[in-house]
């Protein structure tokens, strides 16, 4: 043991990796079947695996540090936000002089300064701004996000790479696993999503409770709380005074206006508790962030990522929750997949001739034993090929009925199509939404839609 | 879990075929659910729908209500629907584009309909909302007002309310405002 007044020397490189190397170089009983322990495994992983971290906020800062210290050498980070002074208490990679700069860029730079050999590529943009192709280069995606919408988007991208074989088994080469972290105050979760094997984000989206919404008339007529006054200023008063002007929650002037209006209203109704920071909290739906919750959840996520990639141990199956509010509780629940999930499920395989028209395709669905779907409306990647109803859309899409599907799907050998219609379920016709995998007979699987080649 | 040899092969292969694929637009689960809602719409006779951005943008549409009974008979009311990718987790955002003298719709077009905010559930759908909007015209409700003056008139003097509605529908915005503002003090003196 070093005496307290003696500065401990900075760890030399091999020292820093000693424990990790031990984990990666010794066999064990709880390891994955693919685990191949060796003294060089850390280097191999580091050079071969590219990891994407989505989000460079409270959780993202922790994730980048933890992943870099877990042997990952090629990291990318994407975040559209810039650093705000209120981030500095917990987003520990940022300093006062960084305020206003890109979170992704500063975070990447700071971690590279501290962990030698690590390369982090920052992306200062929205996740939707990247081509889908961008996401295909990563072996694993780690999410440190605070919005359902963003999670749902990344989930659909990652699940979109998944292909199934003719027995509806996931093709391993097309797997894009995700580790999703989330924190809210003293609570957090870390979950492992292996599309096709464990539930995807959409399979149990009901886990996320919808945001509390106050009735507009309560806001307008009978406010009782500080939050009511703030939401009144935000949802009703803003549009009344600034018709047509978009409210920007990140604009300090806008927020100040909401605050002063909310304060006036609170005084009028004798309500206390409207402060500037509470106003920000209500408008942006912010729950106070606890730095240690981020640290704990991030540590769990980084460990799951390492286990997923190396196979050095079994991963969490499949949803870890942490609650530090009342004592400390950590629990792992195993959620199950929604077999008919539109995002990660295999869908029903339909084989078509290149000459089959859309109307012939719709007829096939009526007779297909797994579907027995009548009155099908058909959509493909945001393009409505045919809509049975309402009348305006039926008219607009009717010309497609005589066009070959091969042409409507732009000459792809395989494509995913979604259909809505009345399908048989336990002897009863019920309205259903189904995912279909369309494959064209005799077309080589080499076209632009494919994400992988078979070996 | 991941087979590193396969990762290595895949990398080589990607390098060889880089830049060959066109980007694929992602369809969110919300868009798909909306596709189902729209293709199953069962519009009441009084209601029609239009898609200002064409057949491939279902996330933004307009609902036109022409009430066939009640105070608002003869009027045409346009509502804009904005559906987010998190639908049906989140309710659609609905605004009334037509200026209307109504206890539950304010002059900015905010609509006070419980299923659009506090009582929204993912099992509800676009059809439910459209029925709710129709109900607002056949049964305006003075208990949860958004337009306080209109609600007071409806509660205390339905005849005057009817007259105000007719005046507002005939005259557009100016008279809606005039009705809304001039009748309020009068009501208090009743
Ligand atoms: Zn799923």
Automatic annotation (TrEMBL), chain A:
Q: Where is the active site?
A: 217 (glycyl thioester intermediate)
Name the chemical reaction catalysed here. ATP + [NEDD8 protein] + [E1 NEDD8-activating enzyme]-L-cysteine = AMP + diphosphate + [E1 NEDD8-activating enzyme]-S-[NEDD8 protein]-yl-L-cysteine
Signal sequence segment? none
* Pathway listed: Protein modification; protein neddylation
Stated EC number for the protein is 6.2.1.64
Under CDD domains, the record lists: Uba3_RUB (cd01488)
Per UniProt, residues of the E2 binding domain are 350-441
Quote the SMART domains the UniProt record gives.
E2_bind (SM01181)
- One Pfam family per UniProt: ThiF
Asked whether the keyword Repeat is assigned, the reply is: no
Q: Name one GO biological process term.
A: protein neddylation
Enzyme superclass (EC): ligase
What are the alphabetically sorted keywords of the record? Answer: ATP-binding, Ligase, Nucleotide-binding, Ubl conjugation pathway
UniProt GO cellular component terms: cytoplasm; nucleus
GO terms assigned for molecular function: ATP binding; NEDD8 activating enzyme activity
The record's annotation in InterPro entries points to:
E2-binding, ThiF/MoeB/HesA, ThiF_NAD_FAD-bd, Ub_act_enz_dom_a_sf, Uba3_N, Ubiquitin-activating_enz, UBQ-activ_enz_E1_Cys_AS
Q: Which domain of life is it from?
A: Eukaryota
Q: Fetch the PANTHER family from UniProt.
A: NEDD8-ACTIVATING ENZYME E1 CATALYTIC SUBUNIT, UBIQUITIN-ACTIVATING ENZYME E1
The UniProt entry's sequence similarity note says:
Belongs to the ubiquitin-activating E1 family. UBA3 subfamily.
Function of the protein: Catalytic subunit of the dimeric E1 enzyme, which activates NEDD8.
Q: What is this protein called?
A: NEDD8-activating enzyme E1 catalytic subunit
TrEMBL record, chain B:
Q: InterPro entries of this UniProt entry?
A: Ub_conjugating_enzyme (IPR050113), UBC (IPR000608), UBQ-conjugating_AS (IPR023313), UBQ-conjugating_enzyme/RWD (IPR016135)
Ranges of residues in domain UBC core = 29-174
Positions of the catalytic residues: 112 (glycyl thioester intermediate)
Q: Which domain of life is it from?
A: Eukaryota
Q: Molecular function terms in GO for this entry?
A: ATP binding; NEDD8 transferase activity
Protein's pathway = Protein modification; protein neddylation
**SUPFAM superfamilies cross-referenced by the UniProt entry:** UBC-like
Q: Which of UniProt's keywords are assigned here?
A: ATP-binding, Nucleotide-binding, Transferase, Ubl conjugation pathway
Listed PANTHER family = UBIQUITIN-CONJUGATING ENZYME E2
* Function according to Swiss-Prot or TrEMBL: Accepts the ubiquitin-like protein NEDD8/RUB1 from the ECR1-AXR1 E1 complex and catalyzes its covalent attachment to other proteins.
Family, as annotated: Belongs to the ubiquitin-conjugating enzyme family.
Give the protein name, as stated in the record: UBC core domain-containing protein
- State the organism of origin: Leersia perrieri
């Amino acid at each position: 043991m070093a005496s307290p007044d003696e500065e401990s020397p900075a760890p030399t490189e091999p020292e820093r990796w000693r424990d990790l190397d031990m984990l990666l170089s010794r066999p064990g009983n709880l390891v994955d079947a693919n685990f191949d322990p060796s003294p060089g495994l850390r280097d191999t992983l580091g050079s071969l695996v590219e990891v994407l971290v989505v989000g460079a906020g409270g959780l993202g800062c922790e994730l980048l540090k933890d992943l870099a210290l877990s042997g990952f050498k090629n990291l990318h980070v994407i975040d559209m936000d810039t650093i705000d002074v209120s981030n500095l208490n917990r987003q520990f990679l940022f300093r006062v002089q960084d305020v206003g700069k890109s979170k992704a860029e500063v975070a990447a730079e700071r971690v590279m300064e501290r962990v030698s050999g690590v390369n982090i590529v920052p992306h200062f943009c929205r996740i939707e701004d990247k081509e889908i192709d961008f996401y295909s280069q990563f072996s694993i995606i780690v999410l440190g996000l605070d919005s359902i919408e963003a999670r749902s988007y990344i989930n659909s991208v990652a699940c979109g790479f998944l292909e199934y074989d003719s027995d509806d088994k996931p093709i391993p080469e097309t797997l894009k696993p995700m580790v999703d972290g989330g924190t809210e105050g003293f609570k957090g979760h870390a979950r492992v999503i292996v599309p096709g094997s464990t539930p995807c984000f959409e399979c149990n989206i009901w886990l996320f409770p919808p945001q509390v919404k106050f009735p507009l008339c309560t806001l307008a007529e009978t406010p009782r709380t500080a939050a009511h006054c703030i939401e009144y200023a935000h949802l009703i008063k803003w549009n009344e005074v600034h018709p047509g002007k978009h409210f920007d929650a990140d604009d300090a002037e806008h927020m100040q206006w909401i605050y002063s209006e909310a304060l006036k209203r609170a005084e009028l109704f004798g309500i206390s508790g409207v402060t500037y920071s509470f106003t920000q909290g209500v408008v942006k739906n912010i729950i106070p962030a606890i730095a240690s919750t981020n640290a704990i959840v991030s540590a769990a996520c980084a460990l799951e990522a390492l286990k997923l990639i190396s196979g050095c141990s079994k991963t969490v199956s499949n949803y870890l929750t942490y609650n530090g509010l009342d004592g400390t509780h950590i629990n792992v629940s195993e959620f199950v997949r929604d077999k008919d999930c539109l995002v990660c499920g295999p869908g029903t395989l339909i084989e078509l001739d290149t000459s089959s028209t859309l109307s012939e395709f719709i007829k096939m669905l009526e007779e297909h034993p797994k579907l027995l779907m009548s009155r099908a409306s058909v959509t493909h990647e945001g393009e409505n090929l045919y809509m049975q109803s309402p009348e305006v859309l039926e008219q607009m899409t009717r010309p497609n009925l005589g066009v070959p599907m091969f042409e409507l799907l732009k000459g792809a050998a395989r494509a995913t199509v979604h259909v809505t219609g009345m399908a048989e379920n336990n002897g009863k016709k019920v309205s259903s939404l189904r995912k279909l995998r369309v494959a064209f007979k005799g077309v080589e699987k080499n076209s632009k839609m494919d994400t992988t080649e078979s070996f | 879990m991941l087979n590193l040899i396969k990762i290595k092969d895949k990398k080589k292969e990607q390098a060889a075929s880089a830049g060959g694929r066109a980007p694929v637009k992602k369809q969110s689960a919300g868009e798909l659910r909306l596709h189902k809602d729209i293709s199953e719409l069962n519009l009441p006779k009084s209601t029609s729908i239009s898609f200002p951005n064409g057949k491939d943008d279902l996330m933004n549409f307009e609902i036109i209500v022409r009430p066939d009974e009640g105070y608002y008979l003869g009027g045409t009311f346009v509502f804009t629907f904005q559906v987010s990718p998190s639908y049906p987790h989140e309710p659609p955002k609905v605004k009334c584009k037509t200026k209307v003298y109504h206890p539950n719709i304010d002059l900015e077009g905010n609509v006070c309909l419980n299923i659009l905010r506090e009582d929204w559930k993912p099992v509800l759908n676009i059809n439910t909302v459209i029925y709710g909007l129709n109900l607002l015209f056949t049964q305006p409700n003075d208990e949860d007002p958004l337009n306080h003056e209109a609600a007071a008139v409806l509660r205390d003097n339905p005849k005057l309310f009817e007259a105000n509605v007719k005046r507002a529908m005939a005259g557009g915005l100016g008279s809606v405002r005039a009705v809304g503002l001039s009748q309020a003090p009068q009501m208090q003196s009743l």
